[in-house]
Amino acid sequence: MAARAAPKKKPTKKNQSSGKIANFSEQEELKSYYDMLLIRRFEEKAGQLYGMGQIGGFCHLYIGQEAVVTGINMALKEGDQSITAYRDHAHMLAVGLDPKGIMAELTGREGGLSKGKGGSMHMFSREKHFYGGHGIVGAQVPIGTGLAFSNKYNGSDNICVAYMGDGASNQGQVYESFNMAKLWNLPIVYVIENNQYAMGTAVARASSQTDFSRRGVSFNIPGVKVDGMDVRAVYAAADDAVKYARENGPIILEMLTYRYRGHSMSDPAKYRTKDEVQRMRAEHDPIEQVKKRILDGRLASEDDLKDMDKKIRAIVTESADYATNCPEPDPSELWTDVLIET
Amino acid sequence: MAIEILMPALSPTMEEGKLSTWLVKEGDNVGSGDVLCEIETDKATMEVESIDEGVIGKILIDAGTENVLVNTVIAILLEDGEDASVMDNMKPSAAPIATAEAEPVAETTLVAAPVAVIPQTDEIPEGTTFKQQTIREALRDAMAEEMRREDSVFIMGEEVAEYQGAYKVTQGLLEEFGDKRVIDTPITEHGFAGLGVGAAFGGLKPVVEFMTFNFAMQAIDHIINSAAKTLYMSGGQMGCPIVFRGPNGAASRVGAQHSQDYTAWYANIPGLKVVSPYSAEDAKGLLKAAIRDPNPVVFLENELLYGVTMDVPELDDFVLPIGKAKIERAGTDVSIVSHSMGIKLALEAAEILAGQGISAEVLNLRTIRPLDTEAIIASVKKTGRMVTVEEGWVRCGLGAELTAVVMDGAFDYLDAPVARVTSKDVPLPYAANLEKLALPSVDDVVNAARKTCYAD
Known about the structure:
The structure holds two protein chains of two kinds. By secondary structure, chain A is of the alpha/beta class.
């Protein structure tokens, strides 16, 4: 990546929206557009496969929140770990995992990242330093803090990014983690993806402090509020935060974002108005924002972007074909991976 | 190629629904994300969004149609530049299938559970000398030896470092290994257990001490959901080499919340190993094995045994196999099967029973998961009778499990029903007399053994 984030200073001013917007190069605009569009098309296809009965159980889509994970990953370096909860498909695409392996896990097939034994909420990759994929709200936060602990213990300069939602941010274990992370100055960035609803409960109905960037105040952990719908703002904040975490210890990024779909596929989302969703889509869509900049700046033509969309759709369709044609795991897999043989 | 829009399933259980309203009409341009129609299920009304861009070519199911099966073609979408005539050539789609009726499952032979291989290497070489040590010291030495052996082993917990351990089990470790590897935590079991799991995923070998296992209930989600299940959920990628250790069961007069035996709880969980030592020898050899094990191990100690002095073999590297029981006292008339504090009761009872002409065999399980079923069955085949002893409660407890093992493996050898000695089915009382009544006693074991021998 050529052009980097504009002025770089440590986020010493605590708990204020950074307001920083990275000045993206042509390459960065196009890359972020591609990465976000891949997530959206993948999730749309996942929703469709769910509708066809190919995906079972729960399925939590990331549509609307694409800028968060895309911008964060642009700021990471090789070896940095990430961990999240159950809305995790995008996080795996963003670290570069093959869409086929992800989709085949959603359909519960042997070619899935967890050999079909994890499901949509439980996928991992040691190679890409992605540690799941956790189904218990908030549980990924102490685990991520432990990954940061191992970095410090081993003397590595890698950091861990632990993602959580606004709902998880009210969990007790999150604050136990904040306390230890600051006590021991562990290299971790806590990313609170505030998509305004904890399942169906609006933030203000469940949180006494709705400014999540301030949730670290009593632990002396700085926090920054970020426009999570603008991938340049996410990248700028992430770039600062990652550097801060590497040198100083924990930091919180509150990403103001929005999910267009329900909490899971079976959520009719009656807790918010259609107008609200439409307004977010029309005025703040993370992908449309980049598209407009690309077209206005003549970085690519409408036809170029259509070609890119076609290419992405082909990748996603290929992943869906793989995921629906791949065999189910062999019955003998029932008994494997319970314990490591000694 | 025109695209078929299918009736979607909107929940894991939906098979059909009502197509209540169309929000688009034939000829309309739609983009991905646009709402096409509304569907009513038994639970809710949901919107169906378009995945693709195009023009609505034909609506095949009218608004208001009930009982539309999942995967029925409800409309045709024409792609950019396509003419409506392409629909003429489209073959009618295959009959819709309800999602619940997945294709018939090919005959699947249920694969049998693998049989646990019981390690056989618990013999102490002849000529080995022994030293006298408290169980507390044996546990400490086990940790110290493993920490010297591997830099990635560290211990964390409340008061483990500067205070030298709430029960002095970690005495001297801070001095030898420093505060990088002997770490005092805040009193936040949920958080530090989860942090330990993350550290184990990150390649370290944490020993997480709980001041007592009563407090580990705060952390049990991470022990079970994070430590035990992740290897399986990741298809074998995410090993979690961690030891959760601390005193389990009743201490003395500390009341109901500080006096619970969790053996049966953890022994129920696939993905965990559960170890529970009785002697100093057990403590030393099994804790070293637990730290070396690549899996999560729950290591259940007993506070009242910490100060007991016993023999420990003087070997450079004394490691006992996890999963192998030990006959503490051989006998022919009745098998008393137990672990931890229960073995102390069993050995005292066996001595009394010997005076009454009953030869009791005492089997120390050492490991509760995986259970050494072979040793249990062999002992019962020899004696024809079994008494189980545990500090846990009777319902769905360890005794019930041991009984089932004998039903499966030695039913025809039994000369009497199995007798279970457990704590009484009440929270542990504080009053000295009531506490004594609630906990299993030597007399309880003697009486149970006599009953199985029809001695009264």
